[in-house]
Specification:
- This protein has about 130 residues and is of the alpha/beta class.
- Helix content is about 40%, strand content about 15%.
- It has helices spanning about 25-30, 50-55, 65-75, 80-90, 90-95, 110-120, and strands at about 10-15, 35-40, 60-65, 100.
- The protein has a four-stranded parallel beta sheet.
- The longest helix is centred in the C-terminal third of the chain and has 14 residues, at about 110-120.
- The chain is globular.
Length: about 130
């Protein structure tokens, strides 16, 4: 679970995507680097704009993963139809993402580096 500071520094970096895409891992790595990053469980919500309304994300990173790779990373008691439903629930966030990364063939370090490189090109240096 993400820790909530008393005052949220800006920008709030929201991370969304289907289960096992690497959201929690990336959020932790970005927080460790000094960013205010949070995993937003948009994939479980029926509210398409949850990432905006509840998550208050000013920068949105979308991590994607295929169903077979998600199962290889962490066995989940779900079927391809469940993954497809998550993709449907994530459509609005995917459309509005500032950065999209397909993580199937990326290491944890490569995802972290890509996110940090993107943030630096957007003038979002470490706080």
């Amino acid at each position: 679970m993400d820790e909530e500071p008393d005052e949220k520094p800006t920008p709030v970096i929201g991370i969304v995507g289907p289960c096992s895409a690497g959201k929690t891992t990336l959020a932790g790595a970005l927080r460790q680097a000094g960013y205010y990053a949070r995993h937003i469980a948009q994939e479980h919500s029926f509210a398409p704009r949850m990432w905006q309304v509840i998550g208050h994300a000013q920068v949105l990173i979308f991590l994607d993963v295929t169903y077979p790779v998600s199962q290889a990373r962490r066995w989940l008691d779900w079927q391809p139809a469940d993954w497809e439903e998550q993709q449907r629930r994530l459509a609005h966030a995917r459309e509005h993402a500032d950065l999209y990364l397909h993580t199937d063939d990326l290491s944890i370090e490569a995802v972290r580096e890509a996110a940090m490189a993107f943030l630096s090109t957007q003038g979002r240096e470490r706080p």
